[in-house]
């Protein structure tokens, strides 16, 4: 029976070879793209998508060019996350679907059920199981971690990437009722309400996907560091020009100014201006405000008495005014207005940060939200995952916090002991392991039913319990001999057995096919 042309193309060996070749290209480029894009984004763009977008492909090609010695400009994080992305190359999901269809079609169209082809059928079924297992892992698996010090007890793990706005209320049985809202709700300005909050209404006012809340003093220090870095860089560039003999007269005077008293006077200026600005005395007591204003007066007096650059005395005050204007602009831009809450009382500013892309970094979101209680009282609050501080709302019935998403488990782990070993004379880890006490409150005769057991988790020996796998992920290396902190990676993967079955089928098919032909060969040889 002649198959339709479309079926012939779908089940052709050429399509198999082309799909596998493109898969190798995607694996190669996706691996290279992990350095500029970060591991999670690269995996999502190359392997967990139907098409690779132009930004991901550009990052991979740039990294390839760097390997061969070419110089390329890095892609800024804002473009990686914000550009409209166009598909330019087939991604992992598309290639996987095509390969599944190709193998499945060839399985149905070409192979007949017989003892002679039993091994081939097993091999193809195993490959299909491997592909389906990878798809199930991508769709259903969930990764998180547990950070513990010696003696800590945990009944939950924490997400690597996701965050939640939580409201906690103490119940009559001395436990907390937790109402968790996804961080994605904070990205919009729609009113958030749920029956579980018993009348509380939340309206997001401002949201930062990655930000650093700062107190008044911390913001002044940050501004000082920004200015110092700017002047240092400016001086460095002018020194390079001076060495090449390319400085004109005015630039030489400016370089002398930078080397002289200007940075110190400017440092004094923006600290004093900060303490004397309108918003700070307004929140302080009258006595403190008077002290701050006196500080400003003393500063102005010192500026008037300070020696100015001899060669060009007129250039200092314009620079002072320019920095004063910059301070006012930044203070107004990053200052947050909240009406209540411990975080808002301490943190007066929120400084946005570039998106975190590296594997060892994570985004720390912050938000300003408005809460309306049952009696109609409105208040604005600052929340941040940087400080997972619970703040009492209204009469204290609820406590509010923005924190990393928690995944609760029916069992608990207690860190009993931990060990860290290096190869002698090197910084290469030889082994590190954690000893934990596993407790399941269900009760029973063994660990699966609830008895407490002591388990060791090492680099190559994970702990499996309750559908979760605990891997030894990290450990504090800086306190060798007195290590006290450990990090366990927690993986929930309902399809974790599928790859094992797939490999077993492929191995069984190969063995069956080999033995079948071996027996046939021996039989024919015996007949001769």
Characterise the protein shown here.
This protein is an alpha+beta fold. The chain folds into four domains: 5-110, no CATH class; 143-155 and 407-492, no CATH class; 159-212 and 338-406, no CATH class; 215-334, no CATH class. It has 16 helices and 18 strands. Helix 9 (216-243) packs antiparallel against helix 11 (262-276). The radius of gyration is 32 Å and the shape is globular.
Instruction: Name the helicity range.
Output: 40-55%
Which regions are unreliable across 5 or more consecutive residues at pLDDT < 50? Answer: 275-286, 307-317, 443-448, 478-482
Number of domain units = 4
Number of helices: 16
Rg is: 32 Å
Question: How confident overall, as mean pLDDT?
Answer: 77
Which structural category do the helix and sheet elements fall into?
alpha+beta
- DSSP, total strands: 18
Span between N and C termini?
37 Å
> What is the 3D shape?
globular
Major pleated sheet: 10 strands, antiparallel
What are the key terms here?
26% strand; 4-stranded antiparallel sheet; 10-stranded antiparallel sheet; 44% helix; 528 residues
Quick recap:
By secondary structure, the protein is α+β, with helices and mostly antiparallel strands.
What does the secondary structure layout of this molecule look like, with pairings?
Layout (H helix, E strand, L loop, with lengths): L4 H6 L2 H20 L1 H4 L1 H9 L3 E3 H14 L9 H6 L4 E4 L1 H19 L7 H23 L1 E8 L3 E18 L5 E7 L9 E2 L7 E8 L2 E5 H28 L5 H11 L2 H15 L2 H5 L2 H20 L10 H19 L7 H5 E6 L13 E7 L5 E7 L6 E3 L4 E25 L6 E11 L13 E6 L4 E3 L2 E8 L9 E8 L5 H30 L1
Antiparallel strand pairs: 1-2, 3-4, 3-18, 4-5, 4-13, 6-7, 7-10, 8-9, 10-11, 12-13, 13-14, 14-15, 16-17, 17-18
Helix pairs in contact: 2-4, 2-5, 2-7, 7-8, 8-16, 9-10, 9-11, 11-13, 11-14
């Amino acid at each position: 029976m002649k198959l339709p042309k479309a079926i012939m193309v779908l089940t052709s060996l050429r399509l198999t070879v082309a799909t596998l070749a493109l898969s190798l290209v995607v694996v190669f480029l996706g691996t290279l793209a992990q350095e500029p894009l970060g591991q999670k984004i690269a995996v999502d763009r190359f392997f967990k998508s139907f098409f690779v977008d132009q930004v991901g492909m550009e990052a991979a090609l740039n990294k390839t060019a760097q390997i061969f010695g070419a110089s390329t400009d890095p892609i800024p994080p804002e473009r990686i996350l914000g550009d409209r992305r166009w598909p330019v190359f087939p991604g992992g999901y598309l290639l996987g679907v095509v390969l599944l269809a190709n193998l499945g079609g060839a399985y149905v169209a070409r192979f007949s059920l017989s003892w002679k082809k039993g091994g081939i059928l097993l091999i193809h079924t195993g490959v299909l199981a491997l592909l389906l297992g990878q798809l199930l892992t991508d769709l259903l698996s969930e990764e998180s971690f547990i950070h513990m010090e010696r003696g800590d007890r945990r009944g939950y793990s924490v997400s690597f990437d996701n965050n939640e706005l939580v409201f906690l209320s103490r119940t009559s049985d001395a436990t907390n009722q937790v109402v968790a809202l996804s961080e994605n709700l904070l990205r919009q300005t729609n009113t958030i309400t749920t029956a579980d909050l018993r009348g509380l209404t939340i309206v997001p006012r401002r949201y930062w996907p990655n930000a650093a809340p700062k107190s008044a003093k911390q913001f002044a220090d940050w501004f000082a560091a920004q200015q110092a870095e700017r002047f240092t860089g400016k001086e460095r560039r002018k020194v390079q020009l001076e060495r090449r003999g390319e400085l004109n007269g005015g630039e030489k005077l400016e370089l002398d100014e930078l080397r002289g008293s200007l940075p110190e006077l400017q440092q004094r200026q923006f600290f004093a201006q900060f303490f004397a600005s309108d918003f700070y005395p307004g929140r302080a007591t009258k006595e403190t405000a008077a002290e701050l204003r006196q500080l400003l007066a003393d500063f102005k007096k010192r500026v008037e008495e300070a020696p100015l650059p001899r060669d060009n005395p007129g250039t200092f005050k314009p620079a002072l005014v320019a920095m004063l204007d910059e301070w006012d602009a930044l203070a107004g831009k990053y200052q947050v207005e909240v009406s209540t809450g411990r975080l808002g009382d301490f943190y007066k500013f929120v400084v946005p940060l570039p998106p975190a892309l590296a594997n060892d970094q994570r985004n720390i979101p912050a938000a300003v939200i408005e809460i309306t209680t049952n009696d109609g009282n409105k208040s604005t609050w600052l929340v941040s995952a940087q400080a997972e501080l619970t703040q009492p709302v209204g009469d204290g019935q609820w406590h509010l916090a923005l924190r990393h998403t928690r995944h609760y488990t029916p069992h608990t782990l207690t860190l009993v002991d931990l060990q860290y070993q290096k190869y002698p004379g090197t910084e290469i880890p030889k082994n590190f392991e954690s000893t934990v006490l596993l407790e399941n409150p269900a009760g029973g005769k063994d660990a699966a039913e609830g008895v407490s057991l002591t388990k060791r988790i090492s680099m190559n020996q994970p702990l499996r319990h309750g559908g979760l796998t605990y891997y030894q992920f990290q450990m504090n290396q800086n306190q060798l001999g007195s290590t006290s902190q450990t990090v366990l990676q927690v993986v929930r993967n309902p399809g974790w057995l599928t790859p094992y079955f797939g490999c077993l089928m492929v191995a069984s098919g190969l063995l069956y096919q080999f033995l079948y032909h071996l027996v046939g060969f021996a039989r024919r040889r015996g007949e001769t």
